[in-house]
Hints:
This protein has 317 residues and is mainly alpha-helical. It has helices spanning 3-29, 35-40, 48-58, 64-76, 90-125, 130-144, 147-161, 177-211, 214-221, 226-263, 269-279, 282-310.
Amino acid sequence: MRTRFLFSRLADLAFVLFGVSIIVFLMIRLVPGDAVAIMLGANTDITPERVAELRGRLGLDLPFYVQYFNWIGGVLQGDFGTSIWTGRPVAQEIGAHIWPTLQLTLLSVAVGAGLSIPIGCFMAQARGRGIEVAVRVGAIAGLTIPSFWLGIVSIFLLAKLLPGVSALGYVPFTQDPLGNLQRMILPVIALSLPMLANLSRLVRSAMLDALSQDYIRTAKAKGASQRLIVYKHALRNALIPFITSVGVMTGYLLGGAIVVEQVFAIPGLGRLVLGAIAERNYPLVQATILVMTSAFVIVNFLVDLLYAVIDPRVAQK
């Protein structure tokens, strides 16, 4: 990988993250209504003195640009502010809830992306056969089923078929590995199914295109086995659009995890940010959204680097 390409992508990453921080900062402050009065709540005696005190504590009495530079300066040092309701550092609040979301997202990516490759290759090889049509119809159905609906139905079915098995809540892997994986099965299925359906169709299309190329016909003429042709020659080129899509969909999985965590009572970032929005916990909402959007950007940056590793011609442009 060329150094120039790497530094170019790092510069793009820094620029995008800077833009994301500005958007997140302005998004919270441009919400209609007085944010300070909303945070004080309807059951509190809202006096001008209390409003001024909270506004000063949050730094909202300063000009916008001063507020931004104070906030981003703290973020760069690992200081995301203090939660209004608990008084704990926001970084600690996020750290306590980020691992369930990371585990759910990574397992869903592993299942969705991992299974889509053999399924997509099978669909390309069995093109036009009855079983391929059935798998393709199943993939289309997987795209149309909402994750939250699938989660609710799976909980209901599990309660009917295996009433003694728990599907709700979260147990850290370090405390109970078996219990952790048991509770993760249904959320991972619900979250990964749309990704699996989408990527398997993408792999099928890319494989059909690759298998029609001249170098595949040359490999066949030289007597290469079907497995070698499919999984070495054709799949390498088919992986380029696949990897790009995996990066984009991983970011969307972070958003989908918010809903799935609510359905399965998983105490991750999704439940944290929804609770913070309900409580009008201004610093926590801002920091959590920044972390989730930054994760989306960083994942796509890593995909760009992997793209260049698979196809070195990209780094030479």
